[in-house]
Amino acid sequence: MGALETVFLVCLVAGLVYALVTLLLGDAISDMLGELHLPIFQPILLVSGITAFGGSGFLLTRLTDLPMAAVLIIAIFIGISLAMAAYFLWVKPMNKAETSTGYSMNQLPGKIGEVGTTIPAQGLGEVLVSMVSGTTYHMAASVDGEQIPAGMRVVVVEVRDHVLYVTPFPDNYEKGDE
What we know:
Layout: H1 3-24, H2 28-33, H3 43-63, H4 68-97, E1 112-117, E2 125-131, E3 134-142, E4 153-160, E5 163-168, H5 170-177
Parallel strand pairs: 3-5
Antiparallel strand pairs: 1-2, 1-4, 2-3, 4-5
Helix pairs in contact: 1-3, 3-4
């Protein structure tokens, strides 16, 4: 067995072992490696390309009389083609399909809400904030240290210790003047 044939076999076996391990571990390894945010270098694409390269190279060396240079070029082409096909037929459509209804507390500053429970000058009330996932109630305090009555629209200024610090929304004053 030649050196290049060994490389092909190692790539094939490594890809198959990776597939088996990710199948058994629920994609934990893929998720860890998925922190790479370069779409073309996603682990599934790299591993599928390397596995196809190894498998096609190994089969071509065993089943044909092609020169090693030709086998290498064909195996590289097959590996890249399979990785590109996986990207355009599987990864890219799946990325578009993935949506989340979750949000982070860090996304709340700047959001407009409505006071559900009066916010006392030196205490906590509740604010209703509309998000993609629906409406959520959060504990809230006044940034200015002034009481904010229920029903008033507010703007979230900051979030500390899971408490929204809010101030009255400017259009409340205009409505009150009418």
